[in-house]
Amino acid sequence: EKKELEQYIGKPSVTRDGVQVEIVANIGKPEDAEKVLQYDGEGVGLFRTEFLFMDRTSMPTEEEQFEAYKKVAIAMNGKPVIIRTLDIGGDKEIPYMGLEKDENPFLGYRAIRFCLDRKEDIYKPQLRALLRASAFGNIRIMVPLVTCIEEYREARGLVEELKAELDEAGIAYKKDIQVGIMVETAAASLIADIFAREVDFFSIGTNDLTQYTMSVDRGNKKVSYLYSTFNPAVLRSIRHIIACGREAGIMVVMCGEAASDPMMIPLLLAFGLNEFSMSASAILRARKMVTEYSVQELQAVADKAMSFATTAEVEQYMKEFVESGT
Ligand code: PEP
Ligand code: MG
C-alpha cells in the first residue's frame, strides 16, 4: 500500500470533477514539520502549541516561542501554517500554570477563557511571538474554544494592539496575518453565520464539537457509545458551519479526527469543506480518496446520509458506500 500511495506525492488534491481542496497536517512540535513535507502536506492546519508548554517546569518565554514558531514557518517555506493559541484546561493540564481543578473541566476555565484572563503574562507574549514569527512564513493565528463573538473581538483586538507596538518598534511581521477560530462548541456552530462576518477562517474541531454537541465527555468510556461524528446532530452542525463559511467566502478547515476518516471524507467533500487537516501519515491516503470522488456525484450520497435518524444507519450507509468503491 505504501508504494501505491507514494504516487500521490506531488499531485494536487483535486476531485474527479475538478474541485481542489487542501490536505494539511496537525502537528505538536516544530520538528514535526519534516514529516509533513515527507508526506507532501500542503501546509500545517493545526499546530497545537500546548506541547511547547508541557513537560517543563515554567512557561516558555516569548523568545523561545518565537524560535519555535519561526522554525515551523521557515520549514514550511511559504505554505500556510495555522498556529493555535494555547488550549489548556479540559483534558490538557499544565502543573506550573497554577490552575485549580475545575469541577467540570471541559465546561470551565480553559483555552481562550483562561488566556483572556491572563493577557499580560501569557496571551500577549504568545501573540507577540506569533506575530514576530509571521515575518518568516505564512503563519495564521487560530483561537480555540470560542463561544461568543466578544471573545474573538478581544483576541483580535490584542493582535491589532500588538501589531501597532511592533510597528512602533520597527519589528517585522505579516501585515495581513489572518486570525481565525476553532468552531468546536455548540454555541459557535449555531452562530457560525455571525462569526463568518468577522473572522478570517473557520477550523472545525470535531473532537470537541462532538463532545459539546452530544454532552458527552470525549474521554469517558461509559458514554462513548454516544460519541460519534456520524450522529445526525453532529453532522448537521458540521454541514451548517461549512455552509456559513462558504456563504461568507471564508476558508473552512477541519482539524478534528473526523477529517481523516474514510467514511467522513465523502460527506465533507459534498458539504464543501476546503481543507482537511490530519496526522501527516494519513495525508496520502486521504488524497487518494479525494481524487477518486466527484463532488457533484457525492451530493446524492450526502443527501441520503443526512436523511437517516440514527448514527448506526448513517455509519452503515457510509460504510457500504465506501466499500462499494463508487
Ligand atoms: C478538536 O477539538 O477537534 C481539535 C482538533 O482540538 P483538540 O483535539 O486539540 O481539542
Ligand atoms: Mg479542541
TrEMBL record:
Q: Name one GO cellular component term.
A: cytoplasm
Keyword field: Coiled coil, Cytoplasm, Kinase, Magnesium, Metal-binding, Phosphotransferase system, Sugar transport, Transferase, Transport
Enumerate the residues binding Mg(2+).
Answer: 184, 208
EC number(s) in its UniProt entry? 2.7.3.9
Binding locations of phosphoenolpyruvate: 48, 84, 207-208, 218
The catalysed reaction is: L-histidyl-[protein] + phosphoenolpyruvate = N(pros)-phospho-L-histidyl-[protein] + pyruvate
This entry's Gene Ontology molecular function terms read:
kinase activity; metal ion binding; phosphoenolpyruvate-protein phosphotransferase activity
Q: Active site: which residues?
A: 255
* Cofactor(s), by name: Mg(2+)
KW Transferase (keyword) present: yes
List, for all copies, the residue spans of the domain called PEP-utilising enzyme C-terminal.
3-292
The parts of the chain that form a coiled coil are: 145-172
The record's Gene Ontology biological-process terms are: phosphoenolpyruvate-dependent sugar phosphotransferase system
Keyword Calcium (UniProt): no
Where's it found, cell-wise? Cytoplasm
Known function: General (non sugar-specific) component of the phosphoenolpyruvate-dependent sugar phosphotransferase system (sugar PTS). This major carbohydrate active-transport system catalyzes the phosphorylation of incoming sugar substrates concomitantly with their translocation across the cell membrane. Enzyme I transfers the phosphoryl group from phosphoenolpyruvate (PEP) to the phosphoryl carrier protein (HPr).
Q: What is the similarity comment for this entry?
A: Belongs to the PEP-utilizing enzyme family.
What is the name listed in the Swiss-Prot or TrEMBL entry for this protein?
Phosphoenolpyruvate-protein phosphotransferase
Lineage of source species: Bacteria, Bacillati, Bacillota, Clostridia, Lachnospirales
Full-protein residues shown = 247 to 572 of 573
